[in-house]
Fold each of these.
Amino acid sequence: MKLTIATLFSAIFVATLEFVMMIPVGALIAEETGLGIENAPLLISIYPMFALISALLTAPFSDYFGRKPILIALISGLIISCLLSMLATTPSHILILRAFAGMVAGIIMPNAIAYAGDVSHDSKRASVVTWSLLAIPMASSFGVPFMAWFVEITSWQTGFGFIALLSLLPLGLALGLQPISTGVTQFNARKLYSELFSLWQHTATRWILIIEFLLVLVVYCVVPQLGVWLELNFLMSSIEIGMCFLMAGFGAIFGNLIASHFVRRGARLFPIAFGSGLLMLVTVIATANWLPMAFISTLLFFMMMGDASRYPAVQVMLTEIVPISLRGRLLLMNMIVTNMAMATGGIVSSLLTHQHDQRLVGMELVGYLIVGLSLLIFMALSRLSRRQYYIVSH
């Protein structure tokens, strides 16, 4: 079981690192490729758009072929994406490669979590899922500042090369994973897609997916603008932005561990409500400038603590709610919903913010929007709490 956790953890880690690296160095890449610093958020927002398409296209294959071959193919695609990104010199090249990265790296996590649900029994499932998900805040806390520093002293092209090299570890470990049959013996695309979309017909599943959409939408109204916001409004360098994300990453680790503690003891909705309330409060304080600028790293700590404490419960519920023959498609449907929320958040934040006099204006509007979205989350949690959300637990 430890080897399984190590494999899933490392796969999610490199996939997350490749994505969040764009936050501190996206402005540099946009400037050097001719995309323009004002369009740097596109390097983040284009990724989930194509991850959504990939999840929709590959959903039936996860349950038919099993998670192991899919994970191997996706990690291999991530390596290829990084190597090709080293050669990007024009705006079209880098945008195409960010789209390709979204199609491969963007769906590593749901396939990894589906495998965690397959390989573990009910008593161990929450532990395997939560320990694997710890890779996300770990990549943010240690990987992002390291990559910011590494790119500063070398180049962003070398940064992509380093991630490609690092990805060889999960690829090697994935080759040794135990193949697990999902019970789907015939590939009937029409039937598999019909079962995929019929997941929305179950009331509890629908509410969990709605909650996931709102959770991701809230944080991705902020994330695409964070790098530019810190650079323009706080005059931070790439290394300073990386150090801010180090603090934020520690908050995310702390939030993940708190949530995991409650989830392993049977709690599901409380961690989501706690994290949503904390994220809402701190985001409003940060974006409305209610505290001096010196507190921004502390605010990012609590912001990411709130964000990270929400997801373990959702992912565990998704592995519990359907049998193994549907688990891959449900996790990929969740990824479709997640990436729709990420793309929507990026678009909304771009519409609400703009540059004026070398500053990013409009972040306070983003904060107020998050208050409204958070209230919707609390309403959805209230509805879900009145229902028995389990379909099966095996």
Amino acid sequence: LILPADLPLITREDIESMLDRMHSPPVVVVAPDRHHRGTNALMVSPAGLIEYQYGDNSFENHCKLAREAGARLEI
């Protein structure tokens, strides 16, 4: 689970919801920022399945990489 340190509104329920989606790998769970450009949370199973992206367009890039890897994509 990759989470930036600047998410003051994230709740336990948010994290549990992401964890609940991790069954039946390969799977990539990604939470976009409010503009749907950056990534606010990322879970990948198996770890290292895709290359992790940072900065502008990381959300779109994570989605593209998940599809290319044949992983189930959960948003």
Amino acid sequence: MHWADFRAQRLSDRDVPQVIVSGITPSGEFHIGHLREILTAEMIHRACLDTGLDSRYVFIVDSMDPLRRVYDFLSP
């Protein structure tokens, strides 16, 4: 059993619609960690749908997060 299927099976015990929420606050360049955040939640959402659960996936990008530093490739 895939780990996402295991999680969906555990959620099915709750017998309520599932809302899977994920998000990033990108500061600077995008990196592989952003993709992991997206894919982890997406896999759980799809596993919920495969299990027959009523599931929604909400992805949030907080683009208002101030930069922690100004990178060389950004113009001042």
Amino acid sequence: MGLLLFYFINLHGLNIKIINNIIMRSYNLKEKETYMKNILIISSSPRKTGNSQMLCEQFKAGAEFTGHKLNLIQLVEKKIGFCRACDVCMQNGGICILKDDMYEILEQFKKADVLVLATPVYFYGVSAQMKTFIDRTYPIWQNLGYKEVYYIISAGLGEDIINRSLGDLDGFVEHFQRYEIRGRIYATNVMEAGIVRSLPVLQEAYQMGKSV
């Protein structure tokens, strides 16, 4: 076997070092593919340049740097109606009667290994866009699957006002079959849009994305 390998190497002008490099590159590529995750970021700020949205973009940049697959959805750009509590989806295999953008968002949700939920704090709770999104997952609430979860929350006042927003997000995530909350980013005292540009929390969001 050793003589045959030696003959093959010399016949093709190769050497052991090159072959080892080829093997290692192939191994590293397979290892990278194995750990590549499908990440869905749900940004619920009604402001396209809002603070929580900017933190989402930094999280996305960090995760992309490490090679993960990213999908950042800004709910404000989508047509999503309110849940009508008709329960039709419970009788027809999980098909909502509302024909809007939520269908495609749910398809992305099902495929995601990692879910990032981002919201500003409004009246001590999540934004209307986030609550609407959560309610519209009702057609698949019995099969929300396993997700690694991250929270991004921005607030115009101090950290003590975000507890109810956390409760809203936790109440949703606790309906998953399995979940693991891997990280939380809080940007507090950020009333003005875009103010996080000058704050350390922007880099924290980037680093958290890299750590996924």
